[in-house]
Design brief:
The complex is a heterodimer. In chain A, β1 and β2 form a beta hairpin. By secondary structure, chain A is α+β, with helices and mostly antiparallel strands. Chain A has one domain (about 5-160). Chain A has one helix at about 5-55; strands at about 100-105, 110-120, 135-145, 155-160. In chain A, strands 1-2-3-4 form a four-stranded antiparallel beta sheet, covered by helices on one side. By secondary structure, chain B is of the alpha+beta class. Chain B has one domain. In chain B, the strands form two sheets. In chain B, strands 1-2-3-4-5 form a five-stranded antiparallel beta sheet, with helices on one face. A four-stranded antiparallel beta sheet of chain B has the order 7-6-8-9, with helices on one face. The longest helix of chain B is centred in the first third of the chain and has 56 residues, at about 1-55. The radius of gyration of chain B is 25 Å and the shape is elongated. Chains A and B meet through α1 of A and α1 and β9 of B.
Chain lengths: ~160, ~190
């Protein structure tokens, strides 16, 4: 084998190595995409389940027994969160009890989903603006993270009284 | 001597290259099948969930009493006014058996059926698991044995749907799957 043949052989092996690496990279990317998609579906489902659960609870601690006719009757924005004695999801009785609630929910295939919920009052005329004063509308935001999710999945719903 | 070394050497290198290319071909083929099945399975999962959500959210709509008449792990029957005409309708969801899908290579897949009133069953999808779990207003799970009683069924406020779907054929002896759980809390219960 002369020098030119050796060079050609080495070049062809290099080309094939590059091809092999690219095939593996592309395959890995595709598999990762399917995991990401499944995590999005599972994560959205978890978030929607929680929002569903919250939406059948009372709007506010002050509206459980009697209706609130004035916004002043509602819980102050600084006190949104679980009330004394409410130390688990099962004991939450109104929407804002879930404020700052955190939980890890496991899925057999996609692993652990870390959930963080925030509840805030929003401006009734512009539901995207968080209000520091009391209003008859609350925004629920559920943030979901998972190993396979490239970003934090955020699902929101506004609940009115 | 050098001539023979060149021949043998080129055969060895050629053989390696051939093996590498054959391996690449296998990887691409397997990966492509896996991706296709994963896409199909995820799409099926999403479609079945859409139908289930749409119906379950309306559970008990315009019904005053006995809203859920059957609540088991793999079947549920409930009343609602599905067409909003003022008369009560019934919806029955149930899971079929594996023998109904012996045509597929997956030995565990079954069909999920949806029956409106006394109409013929409609197939809404092919799944491995379609499990239903029932919860009361405090979030506690109600046991299946107690759900035989109407009084326990009246306590149902949320239904947790577990869906697991697998591909009809395996890729490298593995069935490509997808799973989700969705807890639905119908407003009319």
């Amino acid at each position: 084998m002369n020098g030119a043949q050796q060079l050609l052989t080495i070049a062809s092996i290099l080309l094939i190595t590059v091809l092999l690496i690219n095939v593996h990279r592309s395959t890995g990317d595709k598999i990762l995409t399917t995991y990401t998609n499944e995590s999005f579906i599972a994560g959205t489902s978890i978030a929607q389940s929680l929002i569903d659960e919250m939406s059948i609870k009372s709007f506010d601690e002050q509206t459980i027994e009697y209706p609130a006719l004035e916004v002043d009757n509602l819980t102050s924005s600084g006190f949104l969160g679980p009330d004394p004695g409410e130390d688990s999801r099962e004991s939450f009785d109104d929407v804002d009890d879930y404020n700052q609630y955190e939980e890890t929910i496991s899925n057999d295939r996609m692993g652990e989903f870390n959930i963080t919920i925030s509840v805030s009052y929003v401006d009734r005329d512009n539901l995207e603006i968080i209000s520091s004063s009391k209003t008859f509308t609350k925004n629920i935001t559920v943030s979901v993270t998972n190993y396979n999710l490239p970003i934090t999945l955020v699902v929101s719903r506004v609940i009115g009284y | 001597m050098s001539y023979w070394l060149d021949i043998v050497g080129s055969f060895i290198i050629g053989g390696f290259i051939f093996l590498i290319l054959a391996n690449i071909n296998l990887i691409i083929s397997s990966s492509s099948s896996e991706l296709s099945y994963a896409t199909i399975v995820q799409s099926d999962l999403s479609n079945i969930l859409d139908i289930v959500e749409y119906d379950f959210y309306k559970m008990g709509y315009r019904i005053s009493d006995n809203k859920i008449t059957l609540a088991e792990k793999k079947k549920i029957k409930f009343a609602l006014d599905i067409d909003d005409d003022g008369s009560s309708d019934s919806l029955y969801y149930y899971l079929g058996t594996t023998s109904e899908l012996s045509i597929t290579k997956n030995p565990d897949d079954k069909l999920v059926y949806r029956v409106v009133n006394s109409n013929s069953p409609e197939i809404i999808g092919r799944v491995r698991h379609f499990h239903l779990y029932y919860y009361d207003s405090t979030g506690n799970r109600i046991s299946f044995s107690s759900l035989q009683n109407e009084s326990s069924r009246r306590k149902i406020r949320s239904i947790d749907v577990k869906l697991v779907i697998e591909s009809v054929e395996s890729v490298d002896s593995v069935y490509i799957g997808a799973e989700l759980r969705r807890k639905i809390s119908p407003k009319n219960l």
